[in-house]
Each structure stands twice: as C-alpha cells, then as structure tokens.
Amino acid sequence: PALSLTGERGCSLAGKSRFLRVILTETVHLLWKIRCERVIELEADKDKYHSMREIVRRWRASLNRRLAIDQALTHPSMRKSALSKSTLHATWRGVLHNEESLPDDWAAVKGVLVGMPASWIRMGAG
C-alpha cells in the first residue's frame, strides 16, 4: 500500500495502517460530497452551510457504514475475497463504542458502532 504505518522497531502496523486508509478515504469522500452540496444545492448561501454537528454526524455514519461493510466481508460466503476476522479486529481495535463489552468475535454482531472521543462530545459535535 502507498500509505502504511510502522512501529518503533520498523515492524508493520497493518491494522492501524488499514484504519488510517479507511479514515482518509471516507473523510475525503465526505468532504467532496459536502462541497458539492454547498456549491450546487445550497448555491454558496452561507446561512445554509452544514453545521459542525451535521458534518460529524455524517462522518460517523460513513465510518459505521464502512465498519458494517468490513463485517459483511468476513462472512464465509465471500470465500477467497473475504476479509479475515483478524484483519477486521486489527483495523477497528481501539475505536469501537463500548469495545470492552463486545464478545471476542464481534464480526457477526449487528449494531457494533464506531465510538467518539469524549472531547468531541464536550465540543458539542456528538
């Protein structure tokens, strides 16, 4: 991959690298959509611009959709193109809502959501 992270000893951090790529692609895509909406639909009317709360809500929704896609990709019916459960877990480790209460194998659990740092909630973005 063109973008990857390495640890202190030069070892690859595959899960974190994949999560970084997910964050970047989902964020850039959302920025593009919001810009198109602002320019085309809202006709650059500043009074109608998206609020920070709306942008964060949509960003979280896009990450939750991506998480659901990754979960679906672990299904055995995907055969050779399946995403391994270890890759799924490594990618999303540390960013799930109430992660400590999830079962060890949460790949098939519906309703698993991406969490939000408390600092964002205090800012009123959540």
Based on the model shown, name its key terms.
126 residues; 0% strand; mainly alpha
What report would you give on this structure?
By secondary structure, this protein is mainly alpha-helical. The chain has helices spanning 14-41, 52-73, 85-92, 118-122.
- The rounded distance between the terminal residues' Cα atoms is 32 Å
Global structural class: mainly alpha
Unreliable sequence segments? none
State mean pLDDT (0 to 100 scale): 85
- Supply the number of helical segments: 4
Task: Annotate the secondary structure layout.
Blueprint: H1 14-41, H2 52-73, H3 85-92, H4 118-122
What's the short story on this structure?
With 126 residues, the chain is mostly helical. The chain is built from four helices and no strands. The mean pLDDT is 85.
